[in-house]
Write a structure and sequence with these properties.
By secondary structure, the chain is α/β, with parallel strands linked by helices. It has 29 helices and 27 strands. Helix content is 48%, strand content 18%.
């Protein structure tokens, strides 16, 4: 069994390389299968243990490769021929995945077949759609099938990977239910499993509504998501409190809840023999998982809890001491991981899968060392809960840093202080729900007391969680680190925990190795933060909007300037795109945030960005405010004042020295400058009280009032004109620029031929959304860019675009590599 660990590790590494690299294209399926059989036979026939283990490792490497090749084409690729066409889909609505919006219900449909005209094909994937009201069970819907588009930026949420892991292939727009029409008639749920699944979903929804009716919408939604899975009904503020405190995993059914339920049931089942107790506990946990929908996170939590339960009970039954419980649970964990990945290879790339197994591994291999060391500094009643949190946090630290690029210092305190309160609230809610559903009226009335107590505890928990999240220095931004840092960290962790298999070295040798690993990690962190870098410009993919980030080293500090923040309906680009991207760079603050004008697609993310990052100075546009822009202005200035940000208004010729000889300058269009020279002043009510602010005349609003930003350095120059139109461009006499961000997302009403002939850009970057309804970039604008010999790069095609002003020239990097842009370096 000792060989199981390296075998599973080899399997996981081979599977990862096959899924994430182009290795699969170079592999021959028949040859791999033959080598797999040969290695297995060699392992069976080998008489030496060392040779047998080596052949087993080779066998699992080949098994991982074959498993990765089994994934094949994504469901999105299967639907590719039908995108943009009206189709009919037959399947069932997943009731537990529905999200109620103001005017519609967002749903996920598990499909069975797709019909296009007279053509019918089997399609077993899922699609997103919107229906006017809540539905469940089998349905037939007609609509226009469209691809799923996600924003592609480093540090941000990888929507394409999420959709592939969850087998979601597209979205159905203008969806309409088909009542009955021959082949399109929905078939009833015939199988026993489908009927059971539908009945359990109805019970789940009924319990959710009962909790919300008894405890209020907020507390009921929180406990409903924790007890029954799914967090779609939670508001954004509550979600942020849990995330900031490192408790986001508790917002859905997790191993914590199943362990809590197992502990409660174990106390009631003590009279039973150990074997029967294990069987009854496993059965109860399985029924609970079915009630929660048995979705992948719930399934993983169930299996992890079962591993810990059977490993602990088996050790107790055997009566063995030493490292037996650790080895028993370790082997079970590896076997479960192997079986799950053979069943669903793509789960290896799922963050929830990685965190689940990482935390379980920490509780198996690191918990004894954490407990042993904590007992020397804290009382015993604190050592155990602290050790559990510490072991899970240490084991998942590289995974969290790789995905979120920051550490939460308050997570340990939150887990110790808030999780017990949360567990008590959950137990009270379970007790109240059981009593409220009993037939005896007196018990039903008694059920209100635990439910109200749980609601009170949750209100206090949210208040204290909000306070802890607001503490200074609660989080440390790390940035993106190379893969070898994670390998070095885990090696250091295993040495620190005194893992038996690593005790072949002497204490002195291990201390020297630990010192070397600590030094290497420290150097990596310092290099990431203070390494000299050229001036770099990032054009973020924010859909139909603009966001440009400029960075440059000034002495030992990296200066960060953000020009516009993008803005999308129902999606906070500042919080979900710009702030995670800055954390990816290792930055938690912004030196200057410049807003070009008050169009929502340019400033809609400013509020979220101000909440997430410290902004030292906010530069507002000189724009006449109307009924649309005034609310944005007031909300942004109020948020900036609350965060202590210095607020100013764009002034002609204002400049900043960034370092490396780079200078940023503001340019106010010529007609604006004339009015400002006359000293036009308007006093306006705002979030700051009565302030005197220079404003543009009423005729200069919207696109015409866009603040222009120029960057000039010894190694290249950059021009950003916002949404300035052709008339505004006529007043700009700025000379030539190496890089130009296309005005107004590549509109034909901007980017005039005369202006392009004047600035002569070598590179033009267009920031727009894929398949946007405005037709940006316009064909006429593209022709003008090409006429002046400018290379064109687009965020809708290549995702986030990075320009590096190196000594050898301007280098362009694309986050999404495209074959037709051969000169662009692949970011990944």
């Amino acid at each position: 069994m000792q060989a199981l660990y390296p075998c599973v590790a080899a399997f996981g590494l081979a599977l990862y390389l096959t899924l994430q690299t182009g290795l699969s294209a170079a592999l021959n399926l028949a040859l791999l299968a033959l080598m797999l059989i040969v290695s297995l036979v060699a392992a069976v026939l080998s008489k030496r243990e060392r040779s047998r283990n080596a052949f087993l490792v080779v066998f699992f490497v080949l098994l991982g490769m074959l498993n990765g090749l089994r994934v094949g084409a994504s469901v999105s690729e299967q639907l590719q021929p039908y995108f943009g066409k009206e189709v009919v889909l037959c399947g069932h609505i997943e009731a537990l995945q529905s999200k109620e919006r103001q005017e519609y219900v967002s749903c996920i449909m598990q499909c069975e077949k797709l019909q296009y005209g007279q053509q019918v094909m089997a399609y077993k994937g899922r699609v997103r759609l919107a229906l006017p009201q809540q539905r469940s069970g089998h349905v037939v819907v007609r609509g226009r099938l469209e691809p799923l588009h996600s924003l592609r930026n480093p540090g941000g949420f990888d929507g394409a990977l999420y959709n592939r892991i969850n087998n979601i292939g597209g979205r159905l727009t203008k969806a309409q239910l088909v009542p009955s029409a021959g082949q399109e008639q929905a078939a009833p749920a015939s199988s026993l499993w489908q009927q059971l699944e539908l009945q359990l979903a109805e019970w789940n929804l009924a319990l959710r509504h009962a909790l919300q009716n008894s405890m209020g919408k907020q507390a009921g939604a929180l406990l409903g998501s924790m007890l029954l899975g799914g967090s779609s009904s939670l508001d954004e503020e509550m979600r942020e409190i849990f995330t900031a405190n490192g408790l986001a995993h508790l917002l859905s059914v997790s191993g914590t809840h199943l362990v809590l339920l197992a502990g409660l049931l174990a106390s009631l089942l003590k009279p039973l023999p150990p074997l029967w107790r294990r069987l009854v506990l496993t059965l109860c946990l399985s029924v609970y998982a079915l009630l929660c929908g048995l979705r992948p996170p719930v399934l993983r939590a169930l299996l992890m809890s079962t591993v810990l339960l059977w490993g602990r009970e088996a050790a107790c039954v055997s009566g063995k001491q030493s490292h037996y419980p650790q080895a028993e649970r370790g082997y079970l964990l590896c076997i479960v991981a192997l079986v799950l990945l053979l069943f669903k290879p793509m789960w290896l790339l799922d963050l929830g899968f990685q965190l689940s197994f990482g935390a379980a591994a920490g509780l198996i291999w690191l918990l004894p060392a954490c407990t042993r060391r904590l007992l020397t500094i804290v009382p015993e009643f604190l050592a155990e809960p602290l050790a559990v949190t510490m072991a899970a946090q240490l084991a998942t630290l590289p995974i969290l840093v790789a995905n979120f690029h920051q550490l939460s210092f308050i997570s340990i305190a939150s887990n110790v202080l808030l999780v017990p309160v949360l567990e008590l609230a959950v137990l009270l809610a379970v007790l109240g729900t059981v009593l409220a559903n009993l037939p005896l009226a007196i018990l039903v009335s008694l059920g209100d007391m635990p439910l109200h107590s749980a609601s009170f505890l949750l209100a206090q928990l949210l208040q204290q969680g909000s306070y802890l999240a607001s503490l200074p220095y609660g989080q440390l931004v790390i940035g993106s680190l190379p893969l070898w840092c994670a390998v070095a960290y885990y090696a250091l962790l295993l040495l620190w925990a005194d893992i038996p298999t690593l005790q072949l070295w002497s204490n002195r040798e291990r201390r020297w190795l630990m010192t070397a690993l600590c030094s290497a990690l420290t150097c990596a962190l310092l290099w990431q933060r203070y390494a000299p870098q050229p001036v770099q410009t990032y054009f973020l993919d924010v859909g139909q909007g603009d966001c440009v980030v400029v960075t440059a080293m000034k002495f030992t500090k990296r200066m960060v300037v953000v020009y516009d923040t993008g803005g999308l309906p129902n999606y906070d680009t500042g919080k979900q795109v710009v702030a995670p991207f800055l954390r990816y760079l290792g930055q938690s603050s912004i030196d200057v945030l410049i807003l070009s004008h008050y169009d929502y697609d340019h400033v809609g993310g400013a509020l979220g960005l101000l909440e997430q990052c410290k902004v030292r100075e906010l530069v507002l546009p000189r724009e006449a405010l109307d009924t649309t822009s005034l609310p944005l202005y007031e909300a942004i200035t109020k948020a900036a004042a609350r965060r202590g940000t210095h607020i100013s208004v764009a002034q002609q010729g204002r400049s900043w020295l960034l370092g490396e000889g780079a200078v940023l300058s503001l340019v106010v269009p010529a007609d604006l400058a004339q009015h400002y020279a006359q000293g036009i002043k308007l006093t306006q009510k705002s979030a700051l009280g009565d302030i005197t602010n220079q404003q543009a005349p009423p005729s200069l609003a919207g696109n015409d009032a866009s603040t222009v930003l120029t960057l000039r350095s010894p190694r290249g120059s950059l021009l950003l004109t916002g949404d300035l139109g052709s008339e505004g461009e006529q007043g700009l006499e700025l000379g030539q620029f190496d890089v130009f961000k296309a005005g107004h997302h590549g509109s034909k009403h901007s980017n005039s031929e005369a202006f392009l002939q004047h600035i002569q850009p070598q590179i033009t970057v267009v920031s727009c959304a894929r398949n946007n309804r405005y037709g940006h970039p316009h064909a006429e604008a593209i022709e003008r860019f090409e006429a002046v010999g400018s290379k064109i790069y687009r965020t809708d095609v290549q995702g986030c675009i990075k320009l590096s002003f190196d000594e050898s020239g301007i280098k362009c990097y694309s986050y999404i590599y495209e074959d037709n842009y051969a000169e662009v370096h692949s970011w990944k």
